[in-house]
Automatic annotation (TrEMBL):
It catalyses: L-histidine = trans-urocanate + NH4(+). One of its GO terms (cellular component) is cytoplasm. Its EC number is 4.3.1.3. The modification 2,3-didehydroalanine (Ser) is found at S148. One of its GO terms (biological process) is L-histidine catabolic process to glutamate and formamide. InterPro entries: Aromatic_Lyase, Fumarase/histidase_N, HutH, L-Aspartase-like, Phe/His_NH3-lyase_AS. The gene is hutH. PANTHER family: HISTIDINE AMMONIA-LYASE. It is found in: Cytoplasm. It comes from Streptomyces alkaliterrae. Keywords: Cytoplasm, Histidine metabolism, Lyase. This is Histidine ammonia-lyase. GO terms for molecular function: histidine ammonia-lyase activity; phenylalanine ammonia-lyase activity. Pathway: Amino-acid degradation; L-histidine degradation into L-glutamate; N-formimidoyl-L-glutamate from L-histidine: step 1/3.
Length: 523
């Protein structure tokens, strides 16, 4: 990707995760390489040769799925390809987010550009033109089983290329596809042999959501390290458990990275290490002491998910595929199991990270475990309730995340008259992971809010009670949060706006930016 001109060049060798995010979220423009167009043209010639022969070839001169037993005569093949798009555009439910649809379209374009699908170059160009025009097909929540591709979602996208169905313009207004294509000077595609099938048969939706979830979780894992450090400091805990030599003897790379992040954030703190002053503790509670182990396991899970995503980004997923020697072969590469498994795995990691963050928040609010902090961090406990119900909200989010951690990929409902008798449910795994990531953002925001208030209350102690100053990095975080609209300590007030400001601060990366302004880059 050319970052300076915000252009992504698509060739036959696949794309990167950064390319996907640039197109899906950053509106980057797409250029097709000459190599991709040449390879696409060459593979199309193989399809044209097969189409002229009397022998049936799946997707070229036969029906689809359980209907593949019928040979389709040449005069009906354009209708066949058009019909598969129309009939498969059968999604229902709420609209899918614009960034997901753009990722879906871009990843299908990536596979088409590989030269293994047998479409004509003009189909490739039209796909790029639609994305560059900011035209987004209306795609619905339900319709993919994660096998034979994300069929209904991809069909709704393919329908736009035909000038049919509903689309959203760059102005956000939904209009008929034909109207929007005409407004941008784009000629609808007339599909030929194999092309309708090639536009539908991939794991592009679930992969796009995986790529974006990985990017979001990377930020949230660092954010959770920071809030864990704030909580440890506010509870007067010890940072000796973060020493690198302790993590070296259990050599999980994610664990070491999280511990190092927390140690950087706590550098220079005068509050840590006082865990034996008021009510002596030999050790801090698990939710504080084991923070690097839990977040670190999440980091290692994320690393595995990224490995799977990178392999998939280099893949050409279609059935049948055109091989370099001109053979057109059926295969099972459209099965979404590899992607579905890691989508479910990430939902488990996200739920556990949220769970430990909620336990730390609860500890900050409980006067019996917070080592001198007022009940619920209230200004006048009894008259004020403080953050009591903020923790309820956080607990509700965590409870939902535990339900979302139940795997989708272990389910399978046979379809297409038992021809497609085992499916991945990867699209469903991706959809629930998006909800889990949103909830994790809110959970981290509540811990941030509670820990910031707790540290502010520590700073209000008189000189004889004070045990030291905050770490420079944690002070920078609290100040940046206040500047972003997150209110400080004080009497009870309408709390939802403060929590919303904390959520925006975490989601936009402000929490990480504030810490790194002191610590330098964090893992």
């Amino acid at each position: 990707m050319d970052m300076q001109s915000s252009t992504v060049v698509v060739g036959p060798g696949g794309v990167t995760a950064e390319d996907v995010i640039a197109v899906a979220r950053g509106e980057a423009r797409i250029e097709l390489s000459a190599e991709a167009l040449a390879k696409v043209g060459a593979s199309r010639r193989f399809i044209d040769e097969l189409a002229a022969k009397p022998e049936p070839v799946y997707g070229v001169s036969t029906g689809f799925g359980a209907l593949a037993v019928r040979h389709i005569s040449p005069e009906l093949r354009a209708r066949l390809q058009r019909n598969i798009v129309r009939s498969h555009a059968a999604g229902m439910g709420p609209r899918v987010e614009r960034e997901v649809v753009r990722a879906l379209m871009f990843l299908r374009l990536k596979t088409v550009a590989s030269g293994h699908t047998g479409v004509r170059p003009e189909v490739l160009r039209t796909m790029a033109d639609v994305l560059n025009a900011g035209i987004t097909p209306v795609v619905h929540e339900y319709g993919s089983l994660g096998c034979s591709g994300d069929l209904a979602p991809l069909s709704h996208c393919a329908l736009t290329l035909l000038g049919e169905g509903d689309t959203e313009g760059p102005d956000g207004v939904v209009r008929p596809a034909a109207e929007l294509l005409a407004a941008h000077g784009i000629t609808p595609v007339e599909l030929r042999e194999k092309e309708g099938l090639a536009l539908l048969n991939g794991t592009d939706g679930m992969l796009g959501m995986l790529v974006m979830a990985c990017a979001d979780l990377a930020r949230l894992l660092t954010s959770a390290d920071i809030t864990a450090a704030l909580t440890l400091e506010a509870l007067l805990g010890t940072d000796r458990v973060l020493a690198p030599e302790l993590h070296a003897i259990r050599p999980h790379p994610g664990q070491a990275a999280s511990a190092a992040n927390m140690l950087k954030v706590l550098a220079g703190s005068g509050l840590t290490g006082h865990h034996q002053d008021d009510a002596p503790r030999v050790q801090d509670a698990y939710s504080v002491r084991c923070a690097p182990q839990v977040a670190g396991a999440g980091r290692d899970t994320l690393a595995h998910a990224r490995l799977v995503a990178d392999r998939e980004l280099a893949a050409a997923v279609d059935n049948p595929v055109v091989l370099a020697d001109g053979r057109v072969e059926s295969n099972g590469n459209f099965h979404g199991a590899p992607v579905a498994y890691v989508l479910d795995f990430l939902a488990i990691a996200a739920a556990d990270l949220a769970s430990i963050a909620e336990r730390r928040t609860d500890r900050l609010l409980d006067k019996n475990r917070s080592h001198g902090l007022p009940p619920f961090l209230a200004d006048d406990p009894g008259v004020d309730s403080g953050l009591m119900i903020a923790q309820y909200t956080q607990a509700a989010l965590v409870s939902e995340m535990k339900r979302l951690a139940a795997p989708a990929s272990v389910d399978s409902i046979p379809s297409s008259a038992m021809q497609e008798d085992h499916v991945s449910m990867g699209w469903s795994a991706a959809r629930k992971l998006r909800t889990a990531v949103d909830n994790l953002t809110r959970v981290v925001a509540v811990e941030l809010y509670a820990a910031a208030r707790a540290l502010e209350l520590r700073g209000q102690w008189d000189e004889t009670a004070a045990v030291g100053e905050q770490a420079p990095a944690t002070r920078a975080v609290v100040e940046a949060a206040h500047a972003a609209g997150v209110g400080g300590a004080g009497g009870d007030r309408f709390l939802a706006p403060d929590l919303a400001a904390a959520e925006r601060f975490v989601r936009a990366g402000g929490l990480v930016d504030a810490a790194e302004s002191v610590t330098g880059p964090l893992a």
